[in-house]
Specification:
By secondary structure, the protein is α/β, with parallel strands linked by helices. The chain has two domains: 207 residues, Spore Coat Polysaccharide Biosynthesis Protein SpsA, Chain A, CATH 3.90.550; 95 residues, no CATH class. Helices cover 50% and strands 15% of the residues. Strands 4, 5, 6, 7, 8 and 9 form a six-stranded mixed β-sheet that branches. Strands 1-2-3 form a three-stranded parallel β-sheet. About 2% of the residues have low confidence.
Length: 305
């Protein structure tokens, strides 16, 4: 468990871990140079005898997870963000699923809760709506965004994570997506189940909450894939398509930000760039609106927001 600014949540998260029906596990928490360390350690106090606590300077969640993986002694690693919650049968059901299907990595489904419009929907409802109840993960499926994994729902063999080089610490975010791609490309058997086994918390300070930054992080991973993987023509086509899709999303979100600030010229430039990635009559209409009635568009956007 990497930890950064999670003092208000860590107690509830640890309670969910120590309520597991499967009991043969160790808990490793890595404090990633958190500014709330004093309060965080105060909350951790009652749990200290049941976990291993490590500290490092702020190097990012990937580096913190790597420290935990290297220190772990078990055959399997179960990742958990320090504000998410496992249901009591999480480990028992994940281990049963991985062994019955001879997988090396599995992902369970999660229920969104907290500060998100997705509250009350499951992760796979939102991001894998057409997937079956059980399935095998593929490189193309992950690459095309048809398959999506939640880190707190992952259980994987430790040896394979080490073999492919752990999380890329050069990627401050989206290192999890990069690692799943490398693991599946490496050939490990990977699957998912739509069984609801955890709760995924969203809040304003979460790393995944900023769509502009999220799109920028995803683009970095796709650029890395394009330059470092020996891709087939089909895979290269998918990467190119995803770069255009995410690039357009990035520029659209930028344009919304500029519009709300009254920076109309920059909003127009962002919309123009988005349209160059993915041509759309709607984007052309927004660009025209920004030319002839930008203040009206700003008021409309503020009302919708």
């Amino acid at each position: 468990m990497p930890a950064y600014n999670v003092a208000p949540y860590i107690g509830e998260t640890l309670d969910s871990v120590f309520a597991q029906t499967f009991s043969d596990y160790e808990v490793i928490i890595v404090n990633d140079g958190s500014p709330d360390t004093v309060e965080f350690e105060r909350v951790l106090g009652p749990y200290m005898g049941r976990l291993r606590y490590m500290k490092q300077s702020n190097l990012g969640a990937g580096a913190a997870r790597n420290e935990g993986v290297r220190a772990a002694r078990g055959e399997f690693i179960a990742f958990l963000d320090s504000d998410d919650l496992w249901l009591p049968n999480y480990l028992e059901e994940q281990l049963k699923f991985i062994r019955e299907n001879n997988f090396d990595l599995v992902c369970a489904d999660a229920m969104h809760f907290g500060d998100t419009p997705l509250a009350g929907k499951t992760y796979m409802e939102a991001y894998m709506p057409t997937a079956g109840d059980i399935g095998q993960l593929t490189f193309l499926g992950l690459l095309s965004d048809e398959q999506s994994l939640i880190t707190s729902g992952i259980l994987a063999r430790r040896a394979h994570i080490i073999e492919v080089g752990l999380f890329d610490e050069g990627l401050r975010n989206s290192q999890d997506f990069d690692l799943w791609l490398r693991l599946v490309r490496y050939g490990i058997r990977s699957g998912y189940q739509r069984r609801l086994l955890l709760r995924y918390r969203s809040h304003k300070n979460s790393l995944s909450g900023d769509e502009i930054n999220r799109a920028a992080r995803q683009l970095r991973v796709y650029h890395k894939i394009e330059s470092s993987f020996d891709l087939t023509p089909e895979e290269r086509t998918v990467v190119s398509r995803m770069k255009k899709k995410i690039g357009a999303l990035h520029e659209v979100e930028l344009s919304k930000s500029y519009l709300s600030q009254g920076r109309f010229a920059e909003a127009r430039a962002a919309v123009t760039k988005a349209n160059s990635y993915q041509r759309s009559w709607k984007l052309r209409g927004v660009k025209l609106f920004l030319l002839v009635a930008p203040r009206l568009l700003r008021r409309m956007h503020a009302w919708r927001s």
